[in-house]
Amino acid sequence: RRWAHNIPSFSHLNTVNEEDLAHFSSILAPTSILSTLPSISTPADDIAPYNVDWMGKYHGQANSVLRPRTTQQVSEIVKYCAQRKIGIVPQGGNTGLVGGGISLQKEIVLSLGAMNNVRSFDPVSGILVADAGCILQSLSEHIAPHNHIMPLDLGAKGSCQIGGNISTNAGGLRLLRYGSLHGTVLGLEVVLPDGTILDQLSTLRKDNTGYDLKQLFIGGEGTLGIVTGVSILTPPAPQATNNIFLALPHFDNVLPLFQIVKRQLGEIMSAFEYIDRTAYDMGLQHGLGPLLSADEAGGSQCFVLVETSGGNQDHDLEKLNNLLESLLTADEPLINTGVLSQSPTQFNSIWALREGLTECVQKEGKPYKYDVSVPLADFQKVVDAVRERMISKGLYGDHAISKVMGYGHVGDGNLHLNVIAKHGYRPELEAALEPFIYEIVADRKGSVSAEHGIGSMKRDALHYSKSDVSIDWMRKIKQVFDPLNIMNPGKVIP
Ligand code: FAD
């Protein structure tokens, strides 16, 4: 297979000059007196946070950040950029993990943060229509009094925006239950790369009128247009939620356990999350848990969190208690021990351990993150193979890679493989990891990106998961929408 890091050429693009800034000002003026941030920022202001990603891995070079408040303003900015051939990087909450929202050269950053109004919510159908810049958590809070929840949930919910979620086709903790955004998004409003507003903000559950264009923008990572509005189906809040935390003697038990849990819990199972021993111990070191005493957790190679969401607390608890009892009293138990949350506080602390891992990884050093899909049976083999590789190269230990760990959404076949460089990113570490990891994923017919997207990190690794024919048709689609290649250039398409 081919592997080379190609530096994309941006010679077709112009850098923003004073005249351009004056024009952007005329589009964006007047600044709302309610807004705490100016609608345009340049290096004279503090634009550093827009030029670095959440991990501190990707450093951008944008010299201007625009914050439109309306779709019309986005359209006018894009129209002007198309005329002047100025590159645009749409940016949401900047929590993306593949360097997709960072300007590679001098493209402007178009931040959606000031477009944060809920347009409508129908408590009968559960259909929510909102600006793309709404923070995921604020949308959850908006619909909670109407007994609805967002169909997706992720650790970054306090910062990520619904437009960013859609553009990365974010998965997260509820996908097992409510499916992907390709199913729950009913319509989108998008500003296309020539400035045209594509209004497909449908609130219909069923609409079979030809090509479903919105699907191209779900997971499009801002390369085909800027999502400005979203119509999404939100499910009713479950009447009862519970979780259990299970300690397993070894990884081989995860698959049979998954089968038993699915069979016994049936329709109420809403999450099945995996945490390996290294990740669990790291969580404890950073103050998460402990969910089990050291004795109980001792001798366990990995852990599983199971969540149920149902309609009747007594019924669900009975099912969970029966499950735990049968697991613990089996002739050859698959688990060492398990706890059932007894209160909302315990329920939250079980989830806090799983959700807090990404933040803990960040505190340990600089993470190389590989969010991959592989067959369930291979989860731990992939993690072990990477650790062995780093040991064999003399790159394992506090001087280089200090930890290799796996956790993730087992129920969706999605492994978050995290490799921590204690003292920072170094080219020789990356060279030892890539393309090695992409090759072992491809050998298992997995995907190099289960949910974080491609961005700039995996652009040159796309062919490990997509055929030449698929990539060729992606290029053709990009050409149709964005012939000038101004929309998030250098991302996704190799
Ligand atoms: P950004 O990071 O700002 O942008 C991401 C990409 O989308 C970029 O390419 C950008 O150009 C584009 N984009 C953003 N907004 C728009 C728009 N309005 N129109 C067009 N393009 C746009 N991801 C998961 O899938 N599942 C998880 O469980 C998960 N957990 C996470 C936990 C933590 C702690 C963190 C930090 C991240 C996690 N992520 C997860 C990754 C990330 O949060 C998601 O990818 C999220 O959906 C990105 O949203 P954002 O608003 O921050 O987008």
From TrEMBL:
Gene Ontology MF term list: D-lactate dehydrogenase (cytochrome) activity; FAD binding
GO cellular component: mitochondrion
Matching Pfam families: FAD-oxidase_C (PF02913), FAD_binding_4 (PF01565)
InterPro entries: FAD-bd_oxidored_4_C, FAD-bd_PCMH, FAD-bd_PCMH-like_sf, FAD-bd_PCMH_sub1, FAD-bd_PCMH_sub2, FAD-linked_Oxase-like_C, FAD-oxidored/transferase_4, Oxid_FAD_bind_N
Record key words, sorted: FAD, Flavoprotein, Oxidoreductase
Catalysis performed (reactions): (R)-lactate + 2 Fe(III)-[cytochrome c] = 2 Fe(II)-[cytochrome c] + pyruvate + 2 H(+)
Signal peptide: none
Superkingdom of the organism of origin: Eukaryota
Essential cofactor(s): FAD
Family: Belongs to the FAD-binding oxidoreductase/transferase type 4 family.
UniProt protein name: FAD-binding PCMH-type domain-containing protein
Species of provenance: Suillus subaureus
